Amino acid sequence: MNHLAALKPLEDTTIRGRTVEQLRRLVVTGELAAGMRLTETELADALGISRGPLREAIRELVDIGLLVSKPYKGLFVREITRKDLEEIYSLRTMLERFAFQEAWEKRTPEALEDLKARNKKLIGSIEAATDPLGPIEAELHLHSWCYELSGHRLLLQSWNRLKPNLQFYFAMHQQAHERKGPKRRSHDLYIRLASGNDLGAMLDHLNDHMRQGLETTIGFIDCA
Amino acid sequence: MNHLAALKPLEDTTIRGRTVEQLRRLVVTGELAAGMRLTETELADALGISRGPLREAIRELVDIGLLVSKPYKGLFVREITRKDLEEIYSLRTMLERFAFQEAWEKRTPEALEDLKARNKKLIGSIEAATDPLGPIEAELHLHSWCYELSGHRLLLQSWNRLKPNLQFYFAMHQQAHERKGPKRRSHDLYIRLASGNDLGAMLDHLNDHMRQGLETTIGFIDCA
DNA sequence: AATTGTCTGATTGTCAACAATCTGGCTCCC
DNA sequence: GGGAGCCAGATTGTTGACAATCAGACAATT
Question: Which of A87, A98, A152 is facing B154, going by the closest CB pair?
């Protein structure tokens, strides 16, 4: 910790960057409902920008998978099928197990403190119960820990691509279930094992943790 | 095989699409040397197109990792460090092991025929020795088999993002080593195990296959 | 000597108009 | 009835000009 810690990263100054962020937020929070149709001109007008930077922003979201582009028909906010969800979870399990293997030897007391801090933040966010999306972001931030610690840039990049999809689904699920977010103590074991000395146990727990996450949330999707 | 098999996919009609392909090829073959500096206007003039679609194409390549954008300084063809290579290989090992686990039960006689055909094509391409990049594409196509068979779209997408980076490195390596490509029989065991009934042995072999690939090729990189 | 201020050419960011293309529905013919 | 041809409106693709921003060099200041 140095004396510059108070500095916040300055916000994106380009229209494209800000647009990506704004659209991501709108999609992820469900303010733009799944399946909804948009067009470039319509969006550009609504945002008060021209189509150039908007197109670049859109392409980024399409690439991540938040939007689907059907040429000459319009843009559509992604819909999630059961298969999508299973794919997201199975890939995520894979990635996070790998991340823990890579990060295991790099754990330092400071890093473990950081992990605990993230969990505290998650709990705090759940108890505050102000912004319903807060806990979701906090949970994802907690899970980001192992990816960051691994030092594996490509892996972190993969996680960052997957994250918005998870976020999208969490928010969708939460809305359908009357804003019931993650439980306070849901990550207690996760933290304990991550701080311990049994990598095998941690990896096993990840399988459980993820499978449980999938099972308890998959119920309300009726699609094929 | 049906009677429409002769149909070839029609080429991309948009400037953006064609530009992505062309730039990808140029980077991957080393015709645009690693570290080389480019600018948007320069490229747009050279390609005879305007900057709009070019920018979108560039962004795609930056996202994949083939180009690096340093704002207001220029675009640079990616350079590969030893760490990059280790990351590419470790992630790839992960993904391909996962792909085989997912694909294992889906193997049909037809699918295995397809796999053998891909290996034949690889061998043919090596023996023909015309286009030095042919064997590289054929080898990647062989490895794509398990991803396609898995039916896991997200996984396939991850592989498709990783592929150009591998291709880039292979070509780079080949140029440095006087065009010595993959060996004729390099995938014999791979094919045999993939056709057999011991998933564990296949997964173990993948570790070996990849580690060997990394070790025999990592030599000539002197970077940190 | 080192830090800060200022200028300039280069580079990217943005815009608004225009062109190309597609979709969906309609007609017409068989 | 149904399939080919065609049309209108909508949507995306493309362009060239203009604006904003930056890196690097050099001067001024301490």
Answer: A87
What residue ranges do the domains of chain B occupy?
A: 15-77, 82-218
Q: Which residues contact B49 (CB under 8 A, 6 or more apart)?
A: B15, B19
Contact check, Cβ <8 Å, A56/B60: no
Could you report the per-residue pLDDT of A115-137, keeping only the tens digit for each?
Answer: 999 999 999 998 888 887 888 99
pLDDT in tens, B45-64: 999 999 999 999 999 999 99
Q: Does A136 touch chain B (CB under 8 A)?
A: no
Percent of chain B, pLDDT > 90? 68
Helix (H, G, I), strand (E, B) or coil at A4: coil
Q: How far is the CA of A196 from the C1' of C1 (A)?
A: 53
CATH class given for the domain over B82-218: mainly alpha
Q: Looking at the structure, give the CATH architecture of the domain made up of residues B15-77.
A: Orthogonal Bundle (1.10)
